[in-house]
Amino acid sequence: MKIAVLLKQTFDTEAIISLDSNGQINRQGINLIINPYDEFAIEEALRIKEKHGGEVTIISVGPPEIQDAVFQALAMGADKAVMVTDDALAGTDEYGIALVISKVLGNQEFDLLLSGWRAIDDGSAQVALRVAEILGLPHVNVVTRLEIEEGKATATREIEGGYEVIEVPLPALITAQKGLNEPRYPTMKGIMQARKKPIKKLSLDELGLDTAKIHPKVKTTSYFLPTPKPEGKIIPGGPAEAARELCRLMREEAKVI
Amino acid sequence: MAKGIWIFAEHREGKIKKLTYELLSAGRKIAEKTGEEVSALLFGKGISGLVDSLGKYGADKVYLADNEKLAKYTTDFYGKMLSELAKKNQPSVILLGCTVLGRDLAARVAQKLNTGLISDSIGLELNNGQLTFVRPIYAGKAFAKVVCPEARPIMATIRPNVFVPGQPQAGRRAEVVTVPVNLEKSDLRQIIKDVIMRSSTRPELTEAKIIVSGGRGMKGPENFKILEELADVLGAAVGASRAAVDSGWIDHSFQVGQTGKTVAPTLYIACGISGSTMHLAGMSSSKYIVAINNDPDANIFKVADYGIVGDLFEVVPVLTEECKKLLATQ
Ligand SMILES: Cc1cc2nc3c(=O)[nH]c(=O)nc-3n(C[C@H](O)[C@H](O)[C@H](O)COP(=O)(O)OP(=O)(O)OC[C@H]3O[C@@H](n4cnc5c(N)ncnc54)[C@H](O)[C@@H]3O)c2cc1C
Prior knowledge:
The complex is a heterodimer of chains A (257) and B (330).
Chain A: E1 2-7, E2 9-11, E3 32-34, H1 36-52, E4 55-61, H2 66-76, E5 80-84, H3 94-106, E6 112-116, H4 127-135, E7 139-149, E8 152-159, E9 162-169, E10 172-176, H5 188-194, E11 199-202, H6 204-207, E12 219-224, E13 233-234, H7 239-252
Parallel strand pairs in A: 1-4, 1-6, 4-5, 5-11, 6-10, 7-10
Antiparallel strand pairs in A: 2-3, 7-8, 8-9
Helix pairs in contact in A: 2-5, 3-4
Chain B: E1 5-9, E2 11-12, E3 15-16, H1 18-34, E4 38-44, H2 51-56, E5 61-66, H3 75-89, E6 93-97, H4 100-112, E7 117-121, E8 123-127, E9 130-137, E10 142-147, E11 154-158, E12 175-178, E13 191-197, E14 210-214, H5 224-234, E15 237-240, H6 242-246, E16 267-271, H7 277-283, E17 288-293, H8 300-303, E18 306-309, H9 312-328
Parallel strand pairs in B: 1-4, 1-6, 4-5, 5-12, 6-11, 7-11, 14-15, 14-16, 16-17, 17-18
Antiparallel strand pairs in B: 2-3, 8-9, 9-10
Helix pairs in contact in B: 3-4, 5-9
The complex binds flavin-adenine dinucleotide.
């Protein structure tokens, strides 16, 4: 079973977001991590490999710093990685990134493609599905349980008010939701082994893509930060008294009940 | 030339979802400035009865595809229908709900149409003919204004509870365009093996106007009952923090936050939740936040509009009784 996993590096979940003097998101001093949903995808790939045999390839696109995230995935147990870094990637959107990834995957043999269902930074939840569309793969989105059998995947996914069990033929894309598994930590041994694992680094040129092809469809014109909330009201009194007053405020002041 | 504002209509159990009316309201807002027509896309089986209400809430036209093959949502069938309709009619804008279905469909259709997609929008502005969407990034710690300058259609998914549905206008009717359904079995790769619905009379978490949420302070699964009682009095959904989910007290589909659901109700009542950034990521855009926590220094009080410092086991039952009394006399 050949499995490819899409990996994105994101800001740490605790990162404090600010804008720099150009009104762009300030990247200074921010810790970078593997997108938490992608960790579920990596973990699932490793479990499938442990059960069925095969090979796990990590695919990541971004600035040179992504190497840290790629390395961590290799230390968790992935076998090899392909990294696409290129200055020309600055300003690309989901459309462009999906094109780059599809190009990488086009040169790669795989039975299963896994990714997180969304990244916690832009939260746009499109890249993986666009890749599936470009490559003509079926997909199951937001999956909390996955069963791989000969030539097919059976996936449980969340829908509003319940769950749905869907079967798709392989190769297919599955996007991971929390609940799928508990990601492992890299072990000391894993870290040592990761040093010897192959990471293939590619530029857009080497992939045969020119910048015009990945011209973004959507553009961010500006960023802004939320306006701080005025301080809330702590309702005084004992529990019963405060509860009564809260009920009144929700009704008469906020008018929400 | 691209023309027309399209909205994708979602429905459940024979009823149009409120979100669909919200989308119509967003569509009308654009149409008012551009003079374009607003069309709703209605796919499903046995759904022609829903056309009327779409007209009343602002659709000028309804593209109706009523067919057995569309009885349940599948990416392949719905994706093919929507993209082929769009290729043929060239709308300038397609809006979908930021729901499980909307997100799934929008990304694939955007790629089929070689266009951009703005996910998870919480606002739109029309400046000098340019449609600008506002969307949260970094889980709501910042916002981006995003445009799709050249590619058409402009596609976006819109969060529930952002736009206010318009007043239904009696007698307002939409023109119905019956869409031929040419779907082959070979177009479909997703086979739905099973659908398991939770039997709940409560609203869906992501759509609920009021959410009563519990965290580690609930101390055990059995105690969620007191939240459910309050939720039922308020017609609210129940939510939870990751700590409550990871303790196995409640299913993870109820989790609110960075790795859970993003919600934007008008009222969010957080009980025994400390207010970690990961939890806030999912609920801080709630209109009003109420916090009940026995730790006066809990972070949740920083975002709360109303806070009670106290034992939730004493506060919540009284709150339930009070709300019951109040709502009975309205
Ligand atoms: C990658 C990652 C993703 C995460 N994603 C999420 C997410 O999506 N959602 C999420 O919620 N968390 C998430 N977390 C976890 C998050 O960091 C916190 O651990 C979690 O939110 C804490 O939940 P809590 O507030 O219920 O628990 P605690 O932080 O333990 O808070 C419990 C609170 O209950 C109060 N309390 C206790 N007893 C009572 C009582 N009798 N009456 C009143 N108050 C009482 C305490 O004072 C305390 O403030 C994530 C963490 C990571 C690392």
